[in-house]
Design brief:
Length: 338
């Protein structure tokens, strides 16, 4: 059974401990306490105003803020583990079978990537790379910022193509200044992108794809020489299909806060909560479109189809959802700047 020890062993092989992988978000304590948390509380308060389902608004707000503080001050690994646990629970609730012997963690490499590999004895370790998490957060922040479209195109290009020694978030610090409700849409966008990638990697475990679920291959083996075969592109498209089939069903789950925010967004925002959750694939593949355009001539990935090929295989109704559609249009425009 895969467990935390499998993930820690991967870090130890690189001379790292868990706390070395992703800095605590709470390090930025001044901005967190003076701006982010108060804005988040006000966003929650606006969302539940007049909602008869919330019998004790103050108690509800306190619970949500306690959760937010714990989340902000925790290592990203803890949040990722909770997210995987929630995804597996929700998959079971909607009747989608998935392996239960999974553990997730942040990989300390600055690359827009993720992969699933076998654990020591049984089960699988899903790794999301540092650069993937940072890029998604920065792209979501840029997407919702109140700036001109041309500036967004330029920023998306810089976020996606910046060197590995630069933090993509540096390009968007101070530009947001959006409304309170856009703060929670930003979080939902980043969550949706992470959910799509986690579901994609879970699918590789479900299908036992070569290169992902081969018992005698270590993480270093997968990184140094990913297995390439005539079916590798088919397997990636199959994993995409499994993930995008799951997303709409997961978005339909009636959670208290999800239902409350959906009503608020329909009144006040351009995007509904369910549409954002279902647009995770479009956000990830939109970023990939820009990354591919920035690659040097002749250099390409051999294990994955192009982003354009992957997008063509997605259901058309998924790409017609407004947040994903709008981000893809922005990504196509940003490609033309490269």
């Amino acid at each position: 059974m895969a467990d935390l020890a499998d993930y820690l062993e991967i870090l130890a092989s690189r001379g790292l401990k868990e706390e070395d992988v992703v800095p605590l978000v709470g390090d930025a304590s001044e901005e967190l306490e003076e701006k982010i948390l108060p804005a988040l509380r006000q966003a929650y308060a606006n969302a539940i105003a007049g909602d008869s389902r919330i019998s004790d608004p103050e108690a509800f707000l306190q619970r949500r803020m306690d959760f937010a503080k714990r989340a902000f001050y925790q290592n990203a690994n803890e949040l990722l583990r909770r997210k995987l646990k929630r995804l597996l629970r929700d998959l079971d609730e909607v009747g989608i079978r998935a392996p239960s012997d999974l553990v997730a963690g942040v990989h300390p490499f600055e690359s827009f990537n993720a992969f699933c590999c076998p654990a020591r004895d049984s089960g699988y370790v899903i790794l999301l790379y540092n650069r993937f998490l940072k890029t998604v957060e920065a792209a979501a922040s840029m997407f919702l910022a109140p700036i001109e479209e041309q500036s967004k195109r330029r920023l998306l290009r810089e976020i996606v193509t910046c060197p590995s020694d630069l933090d993509p978030m540096e390009f968007v610090r101070g530009i947001h200044g959006g409304t309170n409700r856009s703060l929670w849409i930003l979080v939902e966008i980043a969550d949706a992108a992470q959910d799509f990638v986690l579901l994609h990697e879970i699918a590789h475990a479900v299908y036992g794809h070569p290169g992902h679920a081969v018992p005698d291959r270590t993480v270093d083996d997968v990184e140094a020489a990913p297995i390439q075969n005539e079916n590798s592109h088919t397997q990636e498209l199959l994993a995409d299909a499994w993930a995008v089939e799951a997303l709409p069903r997961l978005a339909g789950l009636d959670r208290e806060t999800h239902a409350t925010f959906s009503r608020a967004w329909k009144r006040e925002a351009a995007y509904s909560s369910a549409d954002v959750l279902r647009s995770g694939a479009a956000f990830v593949l939109g970023i990939e479109l820009v990354r591919e355009a920035a690659r040097p001539a002749g250099r390409s990935t051999t294990t994955h189809p192009t982003a354009a090929a992957r997008l063509r295989e997605l259901p058309s109704d998924l790409l017609s959802l407004s947040p994903g559609r709008d981000f893809l249009n922005l990504a196509v425009a940003a490609r033309e700047l490269l």
